[in-house]
Amino acid sequence: MKSLVVRTMQRLRCDPRTISGVFFDLRRLVARMRWQPLPQPLPARLQLGAGARAVRGWLNCDIAGSQFNLDLATLPLPLPSGHFTDIVSQHVIEHLEYDPQVIDLFFDCFRLLQPGGRITLSCPDMEKLCRAYLEDGCAAIDHGLKRHWPRAALPGFPVQHRLNYYFHQAGQHKNLMDFGMLKWALEHAGFTEVRHVQEADLLAAYPEFPPRRDDFESLYVTARRPLAT
To answer: What is the pTM of this model?
Structure first.
């Protein structure tokens, strides 16, 4: 069915971003409409946007193909308040609009966490990427360029095009963020102890997570729900 729809949209000369957006919205719709029972017993740790990186002992959620499918832009999430000790989400929030979707999601994550619970997030780092462009035209972050664009193998292909990928990723990215933006949104939702960390800090706290080795491009942030609220 998917291939038939894609071929039809291609014959209609739809832009690839339009095709991608249609299927993304369809997955969101299915996630909202398809009822799933929560796993029992319900894990105390929650991963949002797990993708193919499901972690044993966690409730691994994504828009499709996960233990428990959900749409992060449709709130409140169908999960119990005050249940989770930890929430981790890696390279997911850039797929949401900062205002209101990311900000509202942080309020809901605050609701889901127990007092003293911790949230850890990562996303492309706007500051790192802009610095990379100004310093060497993005040559230092030219990781996997040829995987995304076969023409990148051509002599003299401008590596600074890598920056465009971070900003839009074929229409999937809604915005980039820096530490100041995340800190404000987290504190606005009630979180405290908002800190700029590294991937190594996430792996030290949660060694069961597979490494991404993406500090060169990523912003890692952790925060807590205070004990008394």
So the answer is: 0.86
In this predicted model, what pLDDT tens digit does every residue of 42-98 receive, in sequence order? 999 999 999 889 999 999 999 888 899 998 988 999 999 999 999 999 999 999 999
What's the CA gap between 64 and 70, in Å, rounded? 8
How many whole angstroms from its chain centre is CA 122? 7
Pairing of strands 192-197, 218-224: antiparallel
CA dist., res. 89 & res. 62, Å (int):
10
Classify 130 in phi/psi space as left (phi over 0), alpha (psi -120 to 50) or beta: alpha
Cis peptide bond N-terminal to 115, omega within 30: no
Residue 14 token pair: 């739809």
Do residues 175 and 100 lie in contact, with contact meaning Cβ atoms separated by under 8 Å? Answer: no
- 36-125+177-224: what CATH class? alpha beta
